[in-house]
Amino acid sequence: MIDIRKSFASIPVLKRVSFTLRKGEVHALMGGNGAGKSTLMKILTGVYSKDDGTILVDGQPVEIHGTAAAERAGIAMIFQEFSLVPTLTVAQNIWLKREPRRAGIFIDNAEMVRRSRALLHELGVDIDPETPVGALPVGYMQIVEIAKALSKNARILVMDEPTSSLSEAETEALFELVARLKASGISIVYISHRMAEILAICDRVTVMRDGEAVMTEDCAGLTVDRIVEAMLGAGNAASFEWHDRGPRPEAPPILSLRSLRLPARVNDVSFDLRPGEILGLAGLMGSGRTEIAETIFGRRAPVSGEVIFDGRPVRNQADAIDRGIALVPEDRRKMGLVLDHSVRDNVLLPNLARFTRNFLVQDAEALQTVTRTIRELRIKTDGPDKLARLLSGGNQQKIVLGKWLARDPRLLILDEPTIGVDIGAKSEIVATVRAMADKGMAVLVISSELEELMAISDRILVLHGGRIVQDMNRRDLTSEEELHHAIQGHHIGPSDDVAA
Ligand SMILES: Nc1ncnc2c1ncn2[C@@H]1O[C@H](COP(=O)(O)OP(=O)(O)OP(=O)(O)O)[C@@H](O)[C@H]1O
């Protein structure tokens, strides 16, 4: 891609960006939220048209108008999960609308299954092509997507944060698959904010900043510091380090869980959380962490046991919100944003009561809060009136966080708070949460990223087999490995994971 330019509503988003991909390489595309990574890749995959510039495939200029043209040029985007039809089988999904036919009329199911089996075998994955996609774990859906792309002879695959909803084992499986694809000459553009995985599986890295490609280098010998510097600009360090906030003043707990039991996964969970404390909840994916968060927030009713907030049980979600509980959900697009409303509306939505006097919203005061949120969380938007839908993924996540922080909650629950958020914003978020905890807000953080839990928590609980199996003071933890071991150490086998 040479000198690619793109503006939206006359605001330049890509300013003469050049990007090359070699045959059989995994090329990481990195950059802060809103730097232009997705836009560049949407141009490559025919979702957006470029304003200017040239795209060459195998040295030949190509015009990519629309996704069908991208497909013809051998380019495919691998979506994470939502582009497959859950009620159809793996084979039916792979060959959807291109089914092999007998006598040109009847769908040849046996042939479809046979070809799918061969394809999956080639990929080295053990998936039965006759399983309905809806019955597969999330991690496998991406693999089916890859099989589908290869069945269309794709030679360039674009993966946008492929590991963000994968468990550790699924991530490993994906990495093996990436290595295999590479060996067979497939080229991969890999968008991610996770430094460790980039250094582990990529050959080269290109960093974008404010619509420009500012660095392209071989991964070998590259350090995290060098990448961060390129992303943020010289002199803008991002620190993601824990520091001891000292002993918390003795106060009665604001939240107490007593022998909480939920359907299927949570057997008997009890813990206390005090005002001003930041408590991390660790556990394997599927260990029931999100369910516990939703129960505290009044969204789910327990089978037995209690959630006591400020001396009284939480009755339902409205009651939870009323009394100062906030939940930043994991699935922000579905649950956290009204996409067709502006940034301003989204930030104000849960806060309207605060700005309403005599039935009128106090606009100036409200706008001040919105502007502060945009500034403090470094939300990249042309202004408060931009539609949430048009913001980059990481910036959408910041709005969800910002609207609840603006409410000044007494208890803040964060479920995977920094998925898709760049390293600069991560450290901002940690600092903001810490500052609010210093003023007395209680925080419960769920995260699969151990680095994040280690950076933010005062205390960490490990959930396993439906119970809290460890309660650790962050001060006593010396390494991420120790926490990793605590989580994995209790993993005996799949059957152990689901409570009887
Ligand atoms: N359709 C659109 N209309 C207006 N602005 C847009 C549109 N699509 C993207 N933008 C803007 O372009 C900029 C770049 O967005 P893009 O999604 O490419 O960023 P990104 O680097 O992928 O970020 P992230 O890491 O958060 O996913 C953002 O400021 C975004 O608001």
UniProtKB/TrEMBL annotation:
SUPFAM superfamilies: P-loop containing nucleoside triphosphate hydrolases. CDD domains: ABC_Carb_Monos_I, ABC_Carb_Monos_II. It comes from the Bacteria. Signal peptide: none annotated. PANTHER family: CARBOHYDRATE TRANSPORT ATP-BINDING PROTEIN MG119-RELATED, D-ALLOSE IMPORT ATP-BINDING PROTEIN ALSA-RELATED. The lineage of its organism: Bacteria, Pseudomonadati, Pseudomonadota, Alphaproteobacteria, Rhodobacterales. This is Sugar ABC transporter ATP-binding protein. It comes from Tabrizicola soli. GO terms for molecular function: ATP binding. Keywords: ATP-binding, Cell membrane, Membrane, Nucleotide-binding, Repeat, Sugar transport, Translocase, Transport. The keyword NAD does not apply. PROSITE patterns: ABC_TRANSPORTER_1, ABC_TRANSPORTER_2. Residues 2-235, 249-490 form the ABC transporter domain.
